[in-house]
Amino acid sequence: MGSIDSVSLDYIKGNAKAVVEASPVAYIRYVKSRGSIFNPEDSRVITPRADTGFFIDHEELLEASIWVRVAIEYILSG
Question: Of the candidates 1, 10, 7, 65, which has an alpha carbon nearest to the alpha carbon of residue 38?
């Protein structure tokens, strides 16, 4: 199995639209492709992305990472 670095960006560019349009999930079918491989003028994003328009709240993830850090420090302290 290869790494993600071995995936051809040309392959993604050539097939991404057909793949998302074939999805049975509506919000996947209508994503906006982002990144310079889809639009050379989009220099803000180099890697290919799918913009679903969903808001992501990272607060729960940040709280969990703090809890893990505190737990590890407690375990290591003895």
Answer: 10
